[in-house]
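Students often ask why we bother encoding 3D structure as a string. The short answer is that it lets us treat folding as translation between two languages. Here is a chain of 88 residues written in the first language.
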Amino acid sequence: MDRFTRCNAYVFWEPLAHWFALAQRVHIKLCTLIKNERTFETFFGSKIRDRIGDFVPKRIFFFGFWEPNLTGFMLGAIHSGTATLLES
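And here it is in the second language, the structure alphabet:
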């Protein structure tokens, strides 16, 4: 998670929720315009180099993961030594 997003989440206050959301959107847009291709880290430590103008990399860059519900489920279901099958 980038520093501004972390700070914005930490100081969140309900009466100013709309302004926090607007500030986050402006921040995301400016970061994308200033430097679109970046190297960033997921919340579990993997490094990714991608364009944050794209939907999925943008979510991973700013929040550390893409699908919070799916990520939470997978973290609870898969442990060290668990075998998984991916079908394409």
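Translate back mentally: The two ends are 30 Å apart (CA to CA). Keep this in mind for the problem set.
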